[in-house]
Write a structure and sequence with these properties.
The complex is a heterodimer of chains A (254) and B (246). With 254 residues, chain A is mostly helical. In chain A, 86% of the residues lie in helices and 0% in strands. In chain A, helix 3 packs across helix 9, helix 5 crosses helix 6 and helix 8 runs parallel beside helix 9. Chain B is built from seven helices and nine strands. The chains are: A mainly alpha (254), B alpha/beta (246). The interface between A and B is medium-sized, with 19 and 25 residues.
């Protein structure tokens, strides 16, 4: 009973907010170029179905490619850091600096240097999203039980055996948490990069739809793009959560 | 089997864990390292295993006795099993690390599991086992490579008393049957007296061997209630009282 309620609750809250929103629009008679109601947004979506969906596809392509790149980069760096304290000492501060530097501050540089739109977006979204995977995987790798490491050492295990048969499986839960955070960050990174790149004339992605909607006072289109973004975010987060459960159950299956 | 020759160990923080410890361990002995926490008994065990290096002094192995990889079995206070691997896979691990194919050593894995009474649990995951059974798996993992020397660091300390007694009895029988040399760290006078045929009593701050007792009680299964055993426990208790600093 409680669980069903919990499942319904977010939809109920969303539905309630939508009703309230539509009600306010009807009662106050506010102009749709200031605040469109939910029905106006839905209309805007179907009016511009092709463009918006193409934009969504473009943003998701960047997001998922960036997430794959961030995973590769993050895991690779984490393993290298676990293997060598010198490497860790050299690289870790720079990874932190890259993480705290606002993307909008470095995106113009990347646009100048790289130029090709897809790679610009990909690099930006990767920079934003690789850090949680790196730090969570690194934490998992260094939290390997020291006694198990001793067991491996006593039996003459090589570095690679220890890495693949002990450290990486031990770090799996931490890695998956990092992956989940990075998944949503990759989406944020892709959209922010689109905003910066969009002002440079690149026309693709949901951010561009929002910018164009703003210029033309098509507020309905802006909202439609926002909804698509939100839904994508939830879907990415949710499916990475499912992946997490599946992989951990497979690893520890009885 | 080996000579502990004037071994001292000072940790990075400056603590002197072991101070000029010397002794000999003979093949086939069951040695208990007995003492309160802080007496360096676990450190001495790790030095024997080669997991740590002495600050001064050395461990001298007899001619041809120096163990290679897998030559030393080590059992920790926790079972330290791979949670994602089955019981048989955990026991296979030491052999796998040395490149043995599973099919080739299947018999050795079975034997090791049978030795600890877990033949029927080969496919089970550690999570589904009780603490005592997990410890049995850990012992099987240490035995599967037929080690020359078995080192045990308070392996039964976290178990309930009934389980502990069962495991003590089984370990004692295993030792009788296999003749493996065992060094066993414990802070329990009863455990040391029950299991070992030699007790090295250690005193703390800094860690030293304060007494070396050879015990000669019979191997009867019911000896936990015997007068011999009670006398030995009293003797060890008295020794410990004498060597402890105020």
């Amino acid at each position: 009973m409680n669980r069903t309620l919990e499942r319904i609750a977010p939809f109920a809250l969303g539905g309630l907010a939508l009703c309230l929103w539509q009600g306010i629009v009807w009662v106050t008679g506010i102009q749709p170029y200031v605040l469109p109601g939910p029905f106006d947004v839905l209309n805007a979506y179907f009016d511009d179905f092709g463009n918006l969906n193409a934009a969504l596809l473009s943003t998701l392509t960047v997001t998922l490619t960036a997430l794959a790149a961030a995973t590769t980069l993050g895991v690779f760096l984490a393993v290298a850091m676990a293997a060598s304290t010198l490497f860790r000492a050299a690289v870790h501060p720079w990874a932190v600096i890259l993480q705290v530097t606002p993307l909008v501050a470095i995106a113009p540089l990347i646009i100048i240097w790289v130029g090709q739109p897809f790679f610009v977006l990909l690099i930006c979204a990767t920079i934003v999203s690789f850090f949680p995977i790196l730090s969570n995987t690194a934490a998992g790798l260094s939290a390997t039980p020291s006694e198990l490491l001793d067991v491996f050492k006593l039996n003459g295990a090589t570095r690679w055996q220890t890495l693949f048969w002990l450290r990486l499986p031990s770090a799996l839960p931490n890695f998956l948490i990092g992956l989940r955070i990075s998944g949503t960050l990759a989406l944020v990174g892709a959209v922010v990069a689109e905003f910066v790149a969009g002002s440079g004339g690149f026309a693709s992605g949901l951010a561009y739809q929002i910018i164009e909607g703003q210029y033309r006072l098509e507020i309905g289109r802006m909202f439609a793009a926002l909804f698509l973004l939100g839904i994508s975010g939830i879907l990415i987060y949710g499916s990475l959560g499912l992946l997490e459960r599946f992989l951990l159950r497979r690893r520890d299956a009885a | 089997m080996l000579l502990i020759d004037g071994v001292s160990k000072r940790f990075a923080g400056g603590t002197l864990a072991l101070d000029n410890v010397s002794s000999r361990i003979e093949t086939g002995e069951f040695v208990a390292l007995l003492g309160p926490s802080g007496c360096g008994k676990s450190t001495l065990l790790r030095l024997l295993a080669g997991l740590e290096q002495a600050s001064s002094g050395q461990i001298l192995w007899d001619e041809g006795r120096k163990p290679g990889p897998g030559g030393i079995g080590f059992v920790f206070q926790d079972a330290t099993l791979l949670p994602w691997a089955t019981v048989a896979e955990n026991v296979y691990l030491p052999l796998r690390l040395r490149g043995h194919r599973r099919a080739v050593v299947a018999g050795r894995i079975e034997t090791a599991l049978a030795q600890v009474g877990l033949a029927d649990f080969a496919g089970t995951r550690p999570k589904a086992l009780s603490g005592g059974m997990r410890m049995r798996v850990s012992i099987a993992r240490a035995l599967v490579s037929s080690p020359l020397l078995l080192l045990m660091d308070e392996p039964f300390a976290a178990l309930d008393e009934f389980t502990r007694h069962r495991l003590q009895e089984d370990l004692h029988q295993l030792w009788r049957a296999s003749g493996t040399t065992i060094v066993f760290v414990t802070h329990s006078i009863y455990e040391a007296s029950y299991l070992a045929n030699r007790i090295l009593v250690m005193s703390p701050r800094p860690g030293r061997i304060a007494a070396d007792l050879r015990t000669h009680i019979s191997d009867q299964p019911g000896r936990r209630g015997s007068v011999e055993y009670a006398t030995l426990v009293n003797k060890v208790t008295e020794t410990l009282r004498q060597v402890m600093p105020e």
